[in-house]
Amino acid sequence: MKTKLLATAVSLGLAMPVITEANTSSLSIEQRLALLEQRTLAAEKRAELAEQKAANLEKALQNRQVINQPINNTTATTNHTEAPHLIETNNQYGKLKLYGDVEFNTDIASKKGQLTSVNTQAGKDKDFGDYDKWGINGRILIGLDGERSLENNNYAGFSVQPLANINGQIGLDDANFYFGKKESWQIKLGRYEAYDMFPLNQDTFIEYSGNTANDTYSDGFGYIYMMKEGRGRSNSGGSMMFNTKYDNWYFETNLLIEDGTSIFTDGEYHGRKQINKKNVIYVRPVIAWNKDNFKVAAAIESNVIQNAYGYEDKNTGEFKNQSKRNGYGLTLGWNSLKNDPTNGIDVNWSTAYLDASNETDFTTGANILWRRLQLGYIYAHNDIKSYALNYDSDIEVIFGPGKYDIHTLYTSYELPNILDMDNFKIYIGAYYSVIDGKDIEVKNSDKDRYGSRVRFKYLF
């Protein structure tokens, strides 16, 4: 309002000398009034121009104050998506923010404990990378988010999160574009993770008996299925998701299009090298209900493309489809930490079942977090119904058909406010996992797996 009055006064001040200097002695009253009206309109236009310039100057000063605001005046949180950002600017295209997440680990881990077939010939055993490991690893994430919202709740935005790994490689966490209506519906495309149907919560370090068993199937190391094959963040494809909310209900359907053989280490499944004929499409609908501290969610994920990948029978030359993968999951949770951060608890229980080509997998697990200490347990039972022994001379026989169980215990503890900084934390984690081969032996009797980690976590 002050800006507008100032602009009007300046414009009128500029117009007054023109009016007083006019030679009005020879003009009639009507002509004088017409001339005065023209000059008044000109003064109003000058006032509008001055007002616009003053508003632009005021806006530029405000943006400069936001950009130059000291970082130590902000308050950090434990979630990088809500953490304070270094730069935020508002203009007609929305809001832009920059943030970061530093995560470095010191690890000690035992051997993986491979499965092996009783038919393996003497002298043919290999290590398959099965050895004790210890070292330092980690990465720095730099996030850039942009979003524009309108008064009618329509909105659109993007998120990109490049990673700089300690090994010198550059990676990518999320890269997605989304649009919709606030508190109503949303469509998202790109690289991201959909709804978590098997939350491990504060899972600082878990290696199971398999090789990255929660997202990659590796013959001979065991597999723990967790409803994550169609969740997204794939290295060989992209996703599209639609979600909506109604009252306490949440609905989501995610589509993941990728090279289906990418979930198998070296493209090998059940002892056979897989031939990719076309990309798979995972359809993953989720329905969840959340009220107060309680939540429950159910989901299905299924590849709907038939004969996407498989192998050729050496005897008949016939193509054998291996792309059947149908998963089912259920998860329940109770979280009272928001109401009582000190004595509240966060409890999760999840179960998942996979019906795949010549294989069925069942997994269930639970975890509880109280006073920054978490304890968790996971049980997996797998039934391999068919396995090619000596199918290819280039493929070492690891194990044959059979059943096996995997039991895993894990724990972690959070040390907050390191150096009195609420954005700097240290996590101490450990796990113990054992694989029971039932009618399948375990290579070199390495049934037990264990490890520990110290994680340094810094948000900005």
Spell out the key features of this protein.
single chain, 460 residues, mainly beta, 3-stranded antiparallel β-sheet, 24 strands, 46% strand, disordered N terminus
Q: Could you describe the 3D structure shown?
A:
This protein is mainly beta. The chain is 13% helix and 46% strand. It is built from 2 helices and 24 strands. It has helices spanning 2-21, 29-67, and strands at 88-91, 94-109, 115-116, 133-149, 154-165, 170-181, 185-191, 237-246, 249-258, 268-269, 272-273, 275-276, 280-291, 294-303, 309-312, 319-321, 325-335, 345-356, 359-370, 373-384, 402-415, 424-436, 441-442, 448-459. The protein has a 16-stranded antiparallel barrel. Strands 12-15-16 form a 3-stranded antiparallel β-sheet, with no helix packed on it. A two-stranded antiparallel sheet has the order 3-23. Helix 1 runs antiparallel to helix 2 (29-67). The two termini are 38 Å apart. 27% of the residues are buried. The model is unreliable at 2-22, 63-82 and 117-126 (pLDDT under 50).
